[in-house]
């Protein structure tokens, strides 16, 4: 029999409880100066992903467990499905092993791949009690660590603790009843106090001596911090060399400057001194810093959900350098957040200021106006540096007024439009693959869902994302170009935290598949769409057949839904206008919760135009909350009882006005009145999503959003990286974008003929078309056929790609 590798022997001995065998193996490796990984993972079917400690714990070999722990086995290392050794010992009811693991500081709160902690997997009441006690001990340790970091001014530890998946109670107390904010107050730790306040610490809690944080404030400056009046007219400038990570270029060295609440980075210190050739910048309003155990790295998450990774040089006291940067970032963030929110003060505050009277009042008003002016300047700076992407197309659109679509469509009533060749003038300069990518414009809603610990809050965000995905279609009456078979599109957005790949996987019927993922592996969003288009005489209807799937691995959740039907009216005569209608059901497959949304058709008088209404239901179909709004504008959530009462009153008002309204022809030749483009907000509502205003030049740019204008942009760094099948390289779309309609028409015709010839040649040779990045398979959540990403695209090995352009 072939002798096993040392690590395979170790796994076998651990499984069988062979303590002498393990000791002999470890001794022999020391003598022979061999290296053996005590935390190695099994590769065979019986132990795949399990370490020796997992196996010994599962089979209850206490002496082997103790030996492995003594020689340094990682007590909290998870296997391939997220189980730690403590999960395995608890699952099999090994009480003594559980006690031993806890003695070696095993964590009782690790969440596995099925969202369970060790106490959730055991059937033994005694073990469950032990694990609950261990949980409480761990929680208390974290609380003591939080209290200590607040006392000692250890900002990096404070940030790390508050950034945990399950952070300690921010209002926990010590033996004297002091909260972390009390501790920071009496020790004069201003940066820690600021961080605690921004994270939700209450300044009104009293300790055992009946004292609030204001009573313990070390000086007047600390009192100002606690009262929210810490800001002065300036904060100290901070600058130095940092390494910054980029998706395309990896880690690069920059000279980074923190000034007046704005973070800027330059290639050289001399550029910063002259304020030229700035490589990028970000406003720090409502930003957050996250740190790792490593002394060098830290991450900045900005108000727009963009994420920026930095590291200090490991050569010169990295811990002190990182602390200096974190302190400065915290101070500038507080400064920027304070002044950018000045203009949002309540009416009550305004009345209070006016009532002060006299010279003090005048000076405060002057100071406020100065701060407001400074705030506008900060916003302008932010916008300047966010404009890394283009803000307009190379040429405005042509007028369609001189072209009659009726001359083409009059013989096509009831037909499927994907089989009709349309003149290029009725297109917009995007492929349907790029149009699909517009789902990702509001990715921040996915990040919000992922950050929430409550499944209902996550459902609210996912429902808002589902509604926001169709918002860009408002006033978009141009038809995207039909993708060619094998056409692809990729988009990497570091600022939004995702990357996406899509491919045209079928031509008849036309099916487009896409797969997006978070850059931190925090979500997966995928689906395949078959846009079934039909002409009904006066309107064109687009029914997007296909399931959309969103997966949140952190919560072991998957959500699925289908998009509503889109209809373009007044194809023959009158002003073109768009509506979305139909039912959308968003399902959480883990919890059974659903969000049932109704995209309402316009109706006779246009009263229901663009409206969306629905409910979030638990698995027993009980209404938990109501959602309402307009897919062109915003979405709110409110208590179901308040929503139904509002609907009832609204219905009464409508019936009273009915008699006074004149009749309206169903064959409207104009779009419904824009006066209805407002949402009546019900008291107690919470805003989930609001659309960003379109740029001023949108009407001349095919009614594109800012996001849409950036989709076909071809940057120099992309030219050598993207495959030859990418939409950005498609000549007819590029010609139309550049305003050359004749060339676009010629190229479109040439590409269609080339595609037909290729299909004809394949049919002669019995050769079947093979997709490159997707393959058909079963969607594990719906058990229906879907197009799933095969992976490998981002390895950038693009051999044997079809010549489609």
TrEMBL record:
Keywords noted in UniProt: ANK repeat, Lipid transport, Lipid-binding, Transport
GO molecular function per UniProt: cholesterol binding
Cross-referenced Gene3D superfamilies: 2.40.160.120, 3.30.70.3490, Ankyrin repeat-containing domain, Pleckstrin-homology domain (PH domain)/Phosphotyrosine-binding domain (PTB)
Domain PH, residue spans: 235-334
Cross-referenced SUPFAM superfamilies: Ankyrin repeat (SSF48403), Oxysterol-binding protein-like (SSF144000), PH domain-like (SSF50729)
Keyword Repeat appears in the UniProt entry: no
Alphabetical list of InterPro entries matching this protein: Ankyrin_rpt (IPR002110), Ankyrin_rpt-contain_sf (IPR036770), OSBP_sf (IPR037239), Oxysterol-bd (IPR000648), Oxysterol-bd_CS (IPR018494), PH-like_dom_sf (IPR011993), PH_domain (IPR001849)
Homology family: Belongs to the OSBP family.
Protein name: Oxysterol-binding protein
Organism of this sequence: Anabas testudineus (Climbing perch)
Encoding gene per record: OSBPL1A
């Amino acid at each position: 029999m072939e002798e096993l590798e040392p690590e395979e022997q170790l796994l076998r001995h651990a499984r069988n409880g062979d303590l002498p065998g393990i000791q002999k193996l470890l001794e022999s490796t020391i003598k022979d100066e061999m290296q053996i990984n005590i935390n190695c993972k099994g590769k065979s079917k019986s132990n795949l992903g399990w370490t020796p400690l997992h196996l010994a714990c599962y089979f209850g070999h206490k002496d082997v467990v103790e030996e492995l722990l003594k020689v340094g086995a990682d007590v909290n290392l998870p296997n391939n499905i997220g189980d730690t050794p403590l999960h395995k010992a608890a699952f099999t009811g090994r009480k003594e092993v559980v006690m031993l693991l806890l003695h070696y500081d095993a964590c009782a709160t690790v969440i596995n791949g099925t969202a369970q902690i060790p106490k959730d997997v055991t059937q033994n009441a005694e073990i469950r009690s032990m694990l609950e006690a261990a949980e409480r001990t761990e929680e208390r340790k974290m609380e003591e660590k939080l209290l200590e970091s607040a006392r000692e001014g250890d900002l990096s530890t404070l940030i790390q603790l508050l950034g945990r998946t399950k952070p300690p109670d921010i209002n926990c107390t010590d033996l004297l009843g002091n909260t972390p904010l009390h501790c920071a107050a009496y020790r004069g730790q201003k940066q820690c106090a600021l961080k605690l306040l921004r994270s939700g610490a209450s300044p009104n809690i009293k300790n055992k001596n009946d004292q609030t944080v204001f009573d313990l404030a070390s000086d007047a400056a600390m009192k100002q911090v606690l009262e929210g009046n810490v800001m002065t007219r300036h904060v100290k400038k901070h600058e130095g060399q940092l390494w910054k990570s980029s998706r395309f270029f990896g880690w690069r060295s920059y000279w980074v400057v923190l000034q007046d609440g704005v973070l800027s980075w330059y290639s050289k210190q001399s550029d910063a001194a002259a304020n030229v050739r700035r490589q990028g910048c970000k406003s720090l309003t409502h930003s957050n810093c996250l740190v790792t155990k490593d002394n060098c790295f830290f991450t900045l998450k900005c108000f727009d959900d963009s994420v920026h990774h930095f590291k200090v040089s490991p050569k010169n006291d990295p811990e002190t350098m990182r602390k200096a940067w974190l302190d400065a970032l915290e101070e500038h963030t507080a400064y920027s957040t304070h002044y950018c929110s000045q203009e949002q003060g309540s009416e009550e505050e305004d009345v209070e200021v006016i009532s002060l009277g006299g010279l003090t009042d005048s000076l405060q008003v002057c100071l406020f106006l100065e701060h407001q002016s400074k705030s506008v300047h900060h916003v302008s700076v932010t916008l300047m540096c966010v404009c890394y992407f283009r803000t307009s197309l190379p040429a405005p659109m042509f007028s369609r007024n001189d072209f009659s679509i009726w001359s083409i469509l009059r013989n096509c009533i009831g037909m499927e439009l994907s089989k009709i060749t349309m003149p290029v003038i009725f297109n917009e300069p995007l492929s349907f693959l790029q149009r699909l990518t517009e789902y990702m414009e509001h990715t921040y809603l996915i990040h919000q869902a992922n950050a929430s610990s409550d499944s209902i809050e996550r459902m609210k965000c996912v429902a808002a994302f589902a509604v926001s995905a169709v918002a860009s279609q408002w006033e978009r009456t141009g038809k995207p170009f039909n993708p060619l078979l094998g056409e692809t599109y990729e988009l990497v957005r570091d600022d939004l935290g995702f990357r996406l790949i899509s491919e045209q996987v079928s031509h008849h019927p036309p099916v487009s598949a896409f797969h997006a993922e978070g850059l931190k592996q925090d979500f997966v969003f995928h689906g395949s769409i078959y846009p079934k288009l039909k002409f009904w005489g006066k309107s064109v209807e687009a029914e997007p057949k296909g399931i959309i799937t969103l997966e949140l691995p952190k919560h072991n959740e998957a959500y699925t839904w289908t998009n509503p039907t889109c209809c373009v009216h007044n194809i023959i005569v009158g002003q073109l206008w768009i509506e979305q209608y139909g039912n959308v059901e968003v399902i959480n497959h883990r919890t059974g919760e659903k969000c049932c949304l109704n995209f309402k058709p316009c109706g006779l008088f246009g009263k229901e135009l663009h409206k969306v209404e629905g409910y979030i239901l638990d698995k027993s179909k009980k209404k938990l909350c109501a959602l309402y709004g307009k897919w062109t504008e915003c979405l709110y959530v409110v208590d179901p009882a308040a929503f139904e009462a509002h609907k009832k009153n609204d219905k009464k008002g409508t019936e009273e006005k009915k008699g006074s309204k004149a009749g309206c022809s169903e064959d409207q030749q104009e779009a419904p009145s824009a006066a209805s483009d407002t949402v009546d907000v019900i008291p107690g509502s919470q805003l989930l999503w609001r659309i960003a205003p379109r740029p001023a030049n949108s009407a001349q740019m095919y009614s594109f959003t800012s996001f849409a204008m950036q989709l076909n942009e071809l940057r120099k760094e992309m030219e050598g990286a993207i495959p030859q099948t990418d939409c950005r390289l498609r000549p007819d779309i590029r010609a139309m974008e550049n305003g050359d309609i004749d060339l676009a028409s010629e190229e479109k015709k040439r590409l269609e003929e080339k595609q037909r010839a290729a299909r004809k040649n394949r049919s002669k040779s019995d050769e079947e078309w093979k997709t490159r990045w997707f393959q058909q398979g079963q969607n594990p959540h719906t058990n229906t056929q879907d197009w799933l990403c095969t992976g490998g695209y981002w390895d950038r090995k693009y051999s044997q790609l079809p010549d489609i352009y």
